[in-house]
């Protein structure tokens, strides 16, 4: 393994996905899959030997949930990055994950490209969230800050609230995805955050 290659472990109780993850990592040059486990407790047994840089963990598991496992991993290494994955996008579950110290939350299905992007974002920015999760964050603040947004920003928020992606919004508003991203950054600014990572910190502060 090259010195700059980050060590990853995956926790997913559905063993059918284990080979899928292995196939994904065969094509990643900067990330090495050092272990894949069916439970948090199994991962903890090998943790000290591997000392992973990033943990990718399923939220819902039959015994200890991925969210409950965050504290156990933080006790081992306060700086380890943790990405939660789930087919659930319930806001209370998302909020609980970030309040417990997750660095990211991705909704399924997880493709090879999406996972690579998530790992890269965690490495470079320290945080990652799916577009649908970003939509929920913005929608939450929309109720409090709606009047502070411009007409264009409100249009974007409205489309996000309906589940549209950046690309779809760009097509509907006849602008580029870069323009949409620019407006999203302005929205974050008006929420008193400058990035997704700070938006996630806002989530962690919500009671």
Protein model, in words:
This protein has a six-stranded parallel beta sheet with strand order 2-1-3-4-5-6, with helices on both faces. The model has no long low-confidence stretch (mean pLDDT 83). Helix content is 54%, strand content 14%. The protein has helices spanning 18-26, 40-50, 66-76, 91-99, 112-125, 131-145, 151-161, 166-173, 177-190, 196-205, and strands spanning 6-11, 31-37, 54-58, 81-86, 104-107, 128-129. With 207 residues, it is an alpha/beta fold. The chain contains ten helices and six strands. The protein is globular, with a radius of gyration of 18 Å.
Uncertain segments: none
DSSP strand tally: 6
- C-alpha Rg (nearest Å): 18 Å
In helices, the fraction of residues equals 40-55%
Q: The biggest beta sheet, please? A: 6 strands, parallel
Q: Give the ordered list of helices and strands.
A: EHEHEHEHEHEHHHHH
Shape: globular
The structure class reads alpha/beta
Enumerate how many helices there are, as a single number.
10
Please state the oligomeric state of the protein chains shown. Answer: single chain
Question: Could you tell me the mean pLDDT?
Answer: 83
Strand percentage:
5-15%
Strand order of the largest sheet: 2-1-3-4-5-6
N/C terminus separation: 42 Å
Describe this structure in a few short sentences.
By secondary structure, the chain is α/β, with parallel strands linked by helices. It contains ten helices and six strands; from the N terminus they run βαβαβαβαβαβααααα. The protein has helices spanning 18-26, 40-50, 66-76, 91-99, 112-125, 131-145, 151-161, 166-173, 177-190, 196-205; strands at 6-11, 31-37, 54-58, 81-86, 104-107, 128-129.
